[in-house]
Write a structure and sequence with these properties.
Elements: H1 3-38, H2 44-76, H3 83-94, H4 109-137
């Protein structure tokens, strides 16, 4: 695969993963808003625990879906033949941990780097989402 083709497909998969992530986060906000009135009679600590726990769960689900998308994409383009290796490689690449025990052929390295960029952007978005939620939940006037 040429570098231009790798960048094209990497950008496309990055866009798909980002749309999935944004969609899950937006959906989770609407669900958390519906949950609010149901928790009104619980203590502040209990409400915060439930809200943050559910929000964190949505983030984990979203990132897991993206790792699967990336794993299947590595298999589709022929970079990694086995699903277990593809998932492992996708997870370590997405988190930018990259152990280096599975190395892509030179025809796929730029595509693999695009998977890292996908993880960086979406993990950053998750951090902002959780920080924003936490800042709204904390009872600052009582601290």
């Amino acid at each position: 695969m040429t570098i231009a083709v790798q960048i094209f497909w990497g950008s496309l998969v990055m866009g798909i993963c980002s749309v999935i992530h944004i969609g899950v986060l937006v959906w989770s906000v609407s669900l958390l808003k519906m949950l609010g009135p149901k928790l009104a009679h619980y203590s502040t600590k209990a409400r915060m625990t439930v809200f943050l726990g559910k929000a964190f769960g949505f983030v984990i689900i979203s990132h897991s879906i993206q790792v699967w998308v990336l794993a299947f994409s590595f298999m589709i383009i022929g970079a990694i033949p086995h699903i277990s290796d593809a998932i492992y490689f996708s997870l370590t690449t997405y988190t930018t941990l990259g152990y280096g025990d599975i190395i892509l052929d030179t025809d796929f390295r730029v595509y693999g780097a695009m998977a890292s960029v996908t993880g960086l952007l979406n993990i950053g978005l998750s951090t902002a989402y959780l920080a924003g939620l936490l800042s709204r939940l904390l009872p600052w006037e009582k601290i």
